[in-house]
Amino acid sequence: MALEDAKTQVDTAFTRKSNRGLSFENAFGGATSFLRRTYTKDLNGVDLAITGVPFDQAVTHRTGARFGPRAIREASTLQPYDPPYGWPTNPLEEMAIVDYGDLAFDYAKVSDFPDALTAHIRGILQAGAGTVTLGGDHYITLPILRAYAEKYGPLGVVHFDAHSDLWPDDDMSRIDHGTFLYKAVKTGLIDPKRSVQIGIRTTTEDYLGVSVIDAREVHEKGVAHAVARAKDIVGDGPTYVTFDIDCLDPSVAPGTGTPVWGGLHSWQAAAALRDLAGINMVGGDVVEVSPPYDTTGATAIAGAHVAYELICLYHWARTQR
To answer: For labelling alongside 292, which of 55, 244, 280, 308 has CA 20 to 30 A away?
Structure first.
């Protein structure tokens, strides 16, 4: 990039004249919008909104995921210079993508949070855009699914995680990141027959009809096997993809609240996300990035890559509709 060209690219998070296109700015300076997309609340003509949910009041162990959206955005500034590797299309050029900023909520009124998040996502969907959400702990997926189910009906889910998040919890007022999928099944937000978990390595007595591809199966039978099973399970119906960063082994993603050994390596996750191309993905999230437990920033970098792959999956699904 010529120096004169660089001088014209000044904080494109604010000065970009189009919501499409690559960005060429110093990765170490400027506003840290996700992938240098425009910061805006204007959803007119927008295909996909990136939004953050800095909430971690539902964790069972270590807090810190409230800082995840900020860290993922900062890590993403390394990525918007080139088309995404391994994809035949370029969503940054071919879709209008914006950074919608973070959900605003009162941290001292936790009981109000679920409805606030559902309304936040509902508003984006009503404007005609999809969402990729940066968490935050994994509870946030439940209020998001409520908004998506209002639009699409019961969803299929591809759930990357070390934990099933299906522990029994029939008190719907409880806010717990370990029971979000249990409540999503019990309240009819998702179709368990069209839902699959990848990377699981903790014990759950009842998976409520959700299919499981545990980490050992991925390691021993391969990514291609896991993806083929997942695609067969979710079929062609509307599907939501949620990626808990603790699906990755703590050796490559230590910055998370409940790390479990034996997880997927980054190359396995990258291959799985890319090979899921073709599913009817209508939205997704990456959650549980907790920067205080990773001074290297590697976990946030992984989270940024996951979010970019979710954007690619969403774009690919749009091209197939």
So the answer is: 308
* DSSP state, residue 50: E
The residue with tokens 């937000």 is 189
**Please, are residues 179 and 167 in contact by the beta-carbon 8 Å criterion?**
yes
Contact by Cβ (8 Å): 235, 213: no
Query: 103 is in which domain, residue-wise?
Result: 3-320
Q: CA-CA distance, 320 to 277, in Å (whole number)? A: 10
Whole-model pTM: value is 0.95
Q: What digits encode the pLDDT tens for the residues 257-308?
A: 999 999 999 999 999 999 999 999 999 999 999 999 999 999 999 999 999 9
What single-letter amino acid sits at 116? A
The whole-angstrom separation of Cα 249 and Cα 247 is 7
- Opening angle at CA 240, ends 144 and 59, nearest 5: 50
CATH of the domain at 263: 3.40.800.10
Q: Give the DSSP letter of residue 248.
A: B
Cα 241 to Cα 278: distance, rounded to the nearest angstrom = 13
Q: Are 134 and 302 within 8 A, CB to CB?
A: no
